[in-house]
Amino acid sequence: MAEGDIKNGEKIYQKCRFCHILNQPANRMGPHLMQLQERKAGTIEGFQYSAAMKQAGENGLIWNDATLKEFLTAPKTMIPGTTMRFWGLWEGQIDDLLAYINAQAEAASKP
To answer: What Gene3D superfamilies does UniProt report for this protein, alphabetically (predicted)?
Structure first.
């Protein structure tokens, strides 16, 4: 799991929240981020993914800290044809963001 500053990750997530919901299985402009770790790319039911993202999943792309870091650094470089409208983050920002997302997922999985 990513080691980063969870508090700073929460601030960085503010850039993401308009398109991605973190703790509810509802889609916006982007797919929700619940149960993101170990999820096959392009597979949230009911979300209209780009052909490129669907193909990435069919080719075996699984989201984990390493693949998310690569994608969040330069989405259109990793998956040419993605419709994600974001240019990317710096490495430290990504570590913080993933620490926050992972902490939220861990908290949601506890009764």
So the answer is: Cytochrome c-like domain
* Phi-psi label, residue 99: left if phi above 0, alpha if psi -120 to 50, beta otherwise: alpha
Structural domain boundaries of the chain?
6-109
Q: Which residues contact 65 (CB under 8 A, 6 or more apart)?
A: 1, 2, 37, 98, 102
Residue among 108, 77, 75 nearest 89 (CA) = 75
User: What would the pLDDT profile of 20-49 be if each residue is shown by its tens digit?
Assistant: 999 999 999 999 999 999 999 999 999 999
pTM of the predicted structure, to 2 decimals: 0.91
Angstrom distance (rounded) from CA 92 to CA 19:
21
Report the alpha-carbon distance of residue 78 to residue 53 in Å, rounded.
10
The residue assigned the tokens 């601030």 is 11
How many angstroms separate the CA atoms of 86 and 5, rounded?
22
